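User: Okay, second chain of the day. Same drill as before: sequence in, structure tokens out.
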Amino acid sequence: MENIYSIKVVFGDTDAAGIVFYPNYYRWMDQATHELIGKAVMPVSRLQSEENIVLPLLEASCQFRQPLHFEDKVEVHSEVIELKSKVLKIKHAFKKEGQLIAEGYETRAWASLTNGSIAAVNIPNAVRNVLENQQKEIV
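Assistant: Same drill. Structure tokens below.
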């Protein structure tokens, strides 16, 4: 399953040159991951409040192909591409009018937050089954 998260670039997302400032792509990948997990499993806020599960970021990368500008409309196409016992990798493709603008990924842990301490834990089978059905390649 691919999730599509839509964005309209606002003025505050741009730099002095009028193009999107690169950290915004990482912010949008984070938001797109939350949307993907929210649709596939449950909202991330509920994961944390009800299950004490958080998804800390372990690694992120983004390659920029073309600039985005104020008021551009872009879609972030996101999908799980790797699933290990305690870690998942999400690929993000930024598209404007069907054209690839940027692409990146995030690697995140499935972690328990208990008494202020965080530790990676196994992804539950029920969650794994849902996420495995979204992947192109199962690792």
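The helical segments are 23-40, 44-51, 125-132.

User: Thanks, on to the next one.
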